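Residues determine shape. We examine one folded chain.
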Amino acid sequence: MLIATWNVNSIRTRLSQIIDWINQVNPDILCLQETKVIDDSFPIEPFEKLGYSVEVYGQKSYNGVAIISKIKAENVKKGFCEGNSDEHIEFFQDQKRLISADFHGIKVINVYVPNGSSLDSDKFDYKLKWLNCLASFLDEQVKQGGFICLMGDFNIAPSNLDIHDPKKYEGEIMASKLERNALKNVLKGRLIDSFRIFEKNTDHWSWWDYRNNAYELNKGWRIDHIYISTELSANIKSCVIDSLPRGNIRPSDHAPVMINLNLDDINLDLFEDEDDFFEI
């Protein structure tokens, strides 16, 4: 099963590019971030024509997440609805940044983590609080059992290997110790960075600033990730960053990241209905 994530930086601006990419790659599940459109205005029909169903959680001009899939999505949840107090849920509900769904025993959680702006801003405090809520949300999902695939734009470079010039940016926004520790608290060793299973070196980026010819000079960051339950690490056949769409005319500043997951050896005892599992 091919699962992908892509911050498209406006679904309407990048729609033709997304459709072209789907036709080339043929993912089973595609998680999008920064769709920047309310649910009623999301262009669902082009995806349905390709045989995909669409689940959206959006807002006007900012944020927004969506899950596009060939496989029927079950138990679709929008926002922080478990593992957090009503007060926390209400605090974060204005910004549409999380959507999750179950696909035959694998819970796919699509997130658009706040950028944070700068370390001394209120937006940075919001980012840390949002990540803490994500950690609580994950705690609850783990209690419920099953496998987890957490993906999206995290706006965090997990280590200096994930920055083209770590000496220049270490300790700043997206590379601070506070953000990295908050991400570690989300993962808690129960989820693994699928890309680092296959690639241990630097010089692999998923985001390039629009300014200063960053893409042409390959001055990027790896801030888009796919984390998966450690029990499934042996089932990942590959994890790659497809940087080619970043070279399009009027591209998103992010590139798609995708994993190829082998489901043949997954323990079927975790599923209530084995017949449903084999429909994949």
